[in-house]
């Protein structure tokens, strides 16, 4: 049989015919799917991205109080948050509102004080550094200290002499609110105004440190050594100023020798900067105050401290770690 006959015989085989039909069908279907996919991709209309819309200051100012009240009840959380932010911004820039809050936290009624403290907490949390800056004045520090006095009178004094547990979280909620605000303030602005508001005399010294002077000093020292809470943070900042050390000494919480030694350890530059800030707040002028130099050794130490570099970018209060002093040299 010739090759032509063998080919015809192979082509007439049913198995070959079925395979050929199957391949042809597969090729046709694949071609149709590919063509339809290309047509679909070419005619696809992408969804338009939503444009970000910002609320201008004019739009905020035009919103009336009744409108903001309705927005506060809106089910959308973002809209409600924006309404709260607008109200807090308005309150932070309204001196009457701030004065009313200070009046509220100094009222004898406990619930009225707590409502004012919660309002103040919302105000500072929504406005950030701007709201915190509104608290940095003598009226604010005096009001917070007075609030702590009232909270102390309305509850029993906690035990501060047990070194095995921290009483801070069992303190009155109003006291903890005030301590939170004071911690944020002194971390940003220093403790000078807090000391001037008599925080040590009106609140810290009235804690149950003990009955005798020795017992009070010992228990206070143990508290500072074994605790790590906002009270110890505030006291540590107070110890960075000469005025604060003298207040602690006068209150009987540290002895005279420790106070004088700590004052000598503080660099003159740091003390002078703190005093200049305090003087600027009172008179609006920067005045340099220097302590008397009683001996040649003190003069040498003071000259050495003055020969220093201060590295601070202004984002935090000036601290001892920011000052690089010249190495000591023989007298």
Automatic annotation (TrEMBL):
InterPro entries: ARM-type_fold. The chain crosses the membrane at residues 16-39. Residues 287-301, 318-331 have a biased composition (Basic and acidic residues). Residues 278-331 are annotated as: Disordered. Keywords: Membrane, Transmembrane, Transmembrane helix. It comes from the Eukaryota. The keyword Transmembrane helix applies. This is Cytoskeleton-associated protein. It comes from Hypocrea jecorina (strain ATCC 56765 / BCRC 32924 / NRRL 11460 / Rut C-30).
């Amino acid at each position: 049989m010739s090759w032509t006959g063998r080919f015809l015989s192979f082509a007439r085989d049913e198995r070959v015919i079925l395979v050929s039909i199957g391949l042809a069908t597969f090729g046709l279907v694949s071609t149709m799917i590919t063509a339809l996919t290309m047509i679909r991709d070419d005619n696809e209309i992408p969804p338009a991205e939503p444009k970000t819309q910002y609320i201008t200051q004019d739009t905020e100012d035009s919103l009336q109080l009744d409108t903001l009240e309705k927005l506060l009840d809106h089910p959308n959380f973002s809209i409600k948050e924006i309404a709260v932010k607008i109200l807090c911004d308005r309150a932070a820039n309204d001196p009457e509102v701030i004065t009313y809050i200070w009046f509220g936290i100094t009222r004898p009624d406990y619930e009225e004080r707590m409502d004012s403290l919660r309002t103040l907490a919302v105000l500072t949390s929504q406005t950030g550094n701007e709201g915190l800056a509104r608290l940095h004045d003598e009226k604010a520090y005096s009001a917070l200290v007075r609030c702590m006095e009232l909270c102390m009178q309305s509850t029993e004094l906690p035990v501060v002499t047990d070194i095995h547990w921290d009483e801070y979280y069992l303190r009155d909620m109003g006291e903890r609110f005030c301590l939170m605000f004071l911690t944020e303030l002194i971390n940003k602005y220093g403790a000078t105004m807090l000391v001037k508001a008599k925080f040590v005399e009106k609140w810290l010294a009235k804690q149950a440190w003990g009955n005798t002077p020795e017992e009070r000093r010992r228990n206070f020292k143990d508290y500072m050594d074994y605790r790590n809470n906002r009270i110890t943070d505030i006291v540590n900042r107070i110890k960075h100023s000469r005025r604060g050390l003298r207040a602690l000494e006068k209150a009987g919480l540290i002895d005279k020798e420790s106070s004088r030694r700590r004052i000598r350890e503080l660099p003159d530059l740091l003390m002078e900067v703190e005093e200049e800030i305090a003087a600027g707040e009172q008179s609006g002028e920067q005045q340099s105050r220097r302590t008397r130099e009683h001996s040649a050794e003190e003069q040498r130490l003071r000259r050495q401290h003055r020969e220093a570099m201060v590295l601070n970018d202004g984002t935090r209060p000036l601290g001892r770690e920011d000052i690089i002093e010249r190495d000591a040299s023989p007298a």
